[in-house]
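To: structure subgroup
Subject: Chain for Friday's discussion

All,

I'm putting the inputs and outputs inline so they're searchable in the archive.
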Amino acid sequence: MSAIDGLPPLRAVIAAHGLSAKKALGQNFLLDLNLTAKIARAAGDLSGADVLEIGPGPGGLTRGLLAEGARHVLAVEKDARCLPALAEIAAAWPGRLTVLNADALEIDPLAHLRPPVKVVANLPYNVGTELLVRWLTPPDWPPFWQSLTLMFQREVAERITAQPGGKAYGRLAILAQWRCEARIVMRLPPEAFTPAPKVDSAVVHLTALPAPRFPADPAVLERVVAAAFNQRRKMLRASLKGLAPDIEDRLRAVGIAPTERAEQVPIEGFCALARALAG
């Protein structure tokens, strides 16, 4: 890809700008431009979309997104040390890259984006889950984004895509799959990164559905799911007793045995219970 954008290999960029990864910022740099291009392609056709990227670091994925035809990339980077390297990419792709030196948890990127919007990021480990939950729980649905293509620790990726009946199934799976199609599209070993993390990583692709799979009030559903999984080893009649004094009757009314545990209940069941409690 260096031949495509005329920029140096990432190791040379990191050396030139003194960009050692900072553990405090959750940084693990992906230096193989073939891999970053593959992640960009996993997001689908980018030619008519603006792309939001969080934590671009030295810009490996940023270069992949631009080379794969993104209409415009908004890169939000907290680490000011990375700005000169990102400025070099912006100069190589005039008018197609905007860099914000900001904390992704503290800004509203919408002022800088035109729909349709796709989010593609090798998320910093320390904020990845919090950002995902925010993107999955906006006040209105459909959200501002069409799809999310995100790198996580493999354990988190498996929690997002988990099915009922397993230990990975929980709040994150329900939040994601209630309103999205979610699948793992790529797995990466620790040695793909610099420095190498202690765990495997995976890329998850989530496509926003036009409407949730099953009707439910989001706030009520969140309360039900949080109560159920906060005490996941308990039977539902015990973990949910704080939600309603007649919780056993309400569980039976929607076809859930009060002796079941949270990980046994599919999303449709939680939505039915949320409707029963809201009513």
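Points worth raising on Friday:
The chain has two domains: 2-208, 218-278.
The first helix runs from residue 2 to 5.

D.
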